[in-house]
Amino acid sequence: MPRGPTSTTKFRFKSRKTTITDDSTSRRRSRSPLSSSQFQRHDRDHRRRRPDDSRADSPHRPRPVSPESAFRESLFDALADDEGASYWEGVYGQPIHNYSRFRSSSRQTSSGEPLLDSEGKPVMEYMSDDEYANYVRARMWEKSHGNILEERKQRDTARQRQRDADRAQQATQRSAADRTAWNDMLHDSVGRRHEKVQQEMAMAAWRRYIEGWDCLQAMGKSARAEASQDTFARDVDRVSGAKLIPWPTPSGQSEDVHADVVERFFRQSLAAISKASPTIELQAALKTERVRWHPDKMMQQYGLLGIDASTLQRITAVFQILDSFWTALKNQVQ
Asked: What's the chain's average pLDDT?
């Protein structure tokens, strides 16, 4: 039978070579290293599957105990028998079973005083387990850290002593400042009072001086008018002319005539009554006084009043003092 043309099939099979190549490629890909994201995911999944983590929520795993609970258990274990007491003494380095469970009652009477029993002693109360454990821990800490407490107490005492010293120093300084202020105020008050008294005395002396001159001028005028009458001459003989003259001194006496006394009299008097510049008024007053106290004018105006040689000598001294004072002041102003 003659063969016809070769027919083609619908399916194409892979060659063995292609299959082997694909398998080797697949194996090479499977051996390629993991990328960073793949490695992190792999490591995270691996950690989730750790045996320890799987037992984290296991009810058979012992739960952690707080230090307070552990000490409480050890305390009551030591109280139970001598063996436990000896064991825990070795653990803590000191006995923990020999502390009393009684303490003074915190209750008080209506007046706020501690509650007493029939014998007059403070009423004791039994501490609960938690209170007793806390009490024992506090006493043990004090024993173990006695030096720390002592140093702390010493520091507190030193700080308190320093605070007391600072307060005492501040109080002393305030007291000294108060005394200084008081003394200053008293000194100022006394000074002002003294200045006021001196001013009043200077004003009174000046008024007495001016009034004395008014009286002397009236007497001199009357003496000159009645110079021919014997009656007046006899009266003048009985009164010394030195006592009639108002001398420029605070006392008004001729015995006190000295340069410093006369200058001070005019300075203080004119400063007390001055309303403008004391220097200007002093200069003007000295110019007038020089003319008034000139010996020739004094003899001309008041010679009939009984001015003798000693009185005239003192008048000349006053004139010389005033002239020197006026000249010095004039040169100072210029």
From this structure: 75
